[in-house]
Design a protein that fits this description.
By secondary structure, this protein is α/β, with parallel strands linked by helices. The protein has helices at about 1-10, 40-45, 65-70, 80-90, 95, 100-110, 135-145, 195-200; strands at about 35, 55, 75-80, 120-125, 145-160, 165-175, 180-185, 205-210, 215-224.
């Protein structure tokens, strides 16, 4: 039933074409924009004093993130999930391709092939917005399986009141309470989540905490 409603909402919104990504702004790349992040600060506060943790970063490999995490005494595993989504589901309508069970399985095998309870924390960023059901459901099942009980996840969601494409950034860690955002243009999400929808998304987890912000991004900390 949820899948049917999602299909109708996509059709009503007039979303067509092979990819949700729009062209980035032209010209030389802009310098990263610093953004205060209470959610990120609390994520690191929860693991303060710990060493040797395994953390998963779904924004891709970056020297800033690797350096910050390893200096804390932890190990970082990186996957650029947005880029691999584009590769895995190209060759047609991006979100329609995500409905193919075989393509879903290949994507999961390539990006979430970790033993159960491998990770003590995950930096999800905003990637969940670009997953169509039922791929979203399957990714959530894998995330639930590969994180340890008590692990924390940090996620970002664009405000539900926005329509159409959303501004996409590359997320890097400046310090424990600062994000560095580099503009990557605009991208069409599969769906935008209300607070209630976020809570339902993480219904198998112990707790969900929201952080207010002055921009269009909502920060969420989830405890397994």
């Amino acid at each position: 039933m949820f899948l049917d409603r999602w299909k109708r909402s996509r059709q009503a919104g007039g979303v067509t074409g092979p990819s949700p990504a729009a062209a980035a702004t032209s010209g030389p790349p802009e310098a990263p924009r610093a953004r205060r992040s209470n959610g990120l600060e609390q994520f690191f506060a929860h693991i303060r004093g710990e060493t040797g943790l395994n953390l998963l970063d779904l924004s891709g490999v970056s020297q800033a993130n690797v350096g910050f995490i390893t200096e804390l005494g932890h190990r970082l595993y990186s996957e650029d999930l947005v880029a691999t989504l584009d590769l895995a589901f190209s060759g047609g309508d991006f979100y329609e391709r995500q409905l193919d069970p075989e393509a879903q399985q290949r994507f999961l095998d390539e990006n979430f092939n970790f033993p159960e309870q491998s990770f003590d924390g995950v930096l999800l960023w905003d990637v969940l917005e670009f997953l169509a059901p039922p791929l979203l459901d399957r990714v959530m099942e894998r995330l639930t399986a590969v994180v340890k009980p008590g692990a924390y996840l940090f996620a970002l969601f664009h405000a539900e009141t926005q329509g159409g494409a959303v501004a996409v950034s590359q997320y890097r860690i400046g310090d424990a309470g600062t994000l560095l955002l580099t503009d990557r243009g605009f991208r069409e999400p599969a769906q935008l989540f209300s607070n209630r929808a976020v809570e339902k998304l993480f219904q198998e987890f112990e707790s969900v905490k929201f952080f207010l912000s002055r921009d269009s991004l909502r920060e969420v900390i989830v405890r397994r």
